[in-house]
Records
---
Amino acid sequence: MYKNILLAVDGSEHSLRATQEVIKIASLVNECRIEVVYVADFSKSKNEVLHSQGKEEIELSRRKKLLPIEEKLKSSNLSYQTKILHGEPGPTIVDYANKGNFELAIIGSRGLNSLQEMVLGSVSHKVAKRVQCPVLIVK
């Protein structure tokens, strides 16, 4: 079974569902390590900086998005670590996952319609295509 799992989150409801799935999988294995990754999107970072009081407020805002996910993992008594990365979410997650020694990557699906996905491409689709380990996309 999987002992080293990457959970990519953005603080959304889809991330909470992905967290529930990682809990189900990790609870089946002794000494499973979960790495929770949140990517501070460059395209949104500029807006965050312009509308914040400072660096501490930005960091607090990002941590608030992760809080429900961390609470779920803590209450399940699972070993996890949280990392905040910076960049464009899709490529940043792919790069991090491929450099790590992950056996499974789990990510929530935002549920874009077919036109949005064709024009924008979804983060989960990019991750599934390019990560070198199995990927579980949670709807």
Note: Residues 55-75 form the longest helix (21 residues).
---
Amino acid sequence: MYHPSIPTVDVGAVPADAFLLDVREPDEWAAGHARGAVHVPIGEVTARVGELTEQAGDARVFVVCRVGGRSAQVTGFLAAQGVDAVNVDGGMLAWAAAGRPLVAGDSGAGEPYVL
């Protein structure tokens, strides 16, 4: 989902060691997520922005949701806070379609990804 005023990158441009912020709901996260991603549901982002900026440091924050709408909103918010944030175009649907690694549950055990 393209938003002309929001910095956006293709899923293939996300480095393997990127600071990836997943803003989906807990059930979506549990169904499948990128290994090493940081999970903060969209409704908690404003309250946890300090924690996020501290954790990210100077790193670029790649923001992802299911298809790119919620992550675009969060990217805009973070950018307004001075964070170097970019929206991952197509979200986790594009991530899975591109064959990027995914894990399910909280264990990180590499279970199959279910959308």
Note: Confidence is low (pLDDT under 50) at residues 107-115.
